[in-house]
Amino acid sequence: LPSQVREFFLLTAGIQTSAGVTIDLSGLFDLTIHGERYCVLGEFWKEADGDQLLLCPGEETVWYYAHEQDKVKRLCNDMTELLEKKLARHLNEH
Known about the structure:
Blueprint: H1 3-11, E1 14-16, E2 21-24, E3 29-33, E4 36-44, E5 52-55, E6 62-66, E7 71-76, H2 79-93
Antiparallel strand pairs: 1-2, 2-4, 3-4, 4-5, 5-6, 6-7
Protein name: SMI1/KNR4 family protein
């Protein structure tokens, strides 16, 4: 896992909100989508319920899987941007 993700899980086992955001250390698993391997970090209902937060091995970039479109999309540069910008904005909108 990237260093910022490891640091996050040193502070907490995860977060869960009623707005469709779940990041859970015990829920991490590997998933292959369109031939690419990802680590599923949790759920982030950006476009639809069930969209997933993804990490590529060896990268800090956070991706998400828009399951209704069957597409993996870039979300942000790293865990800090995810927590401080993307999730904060998502929670304020919901």
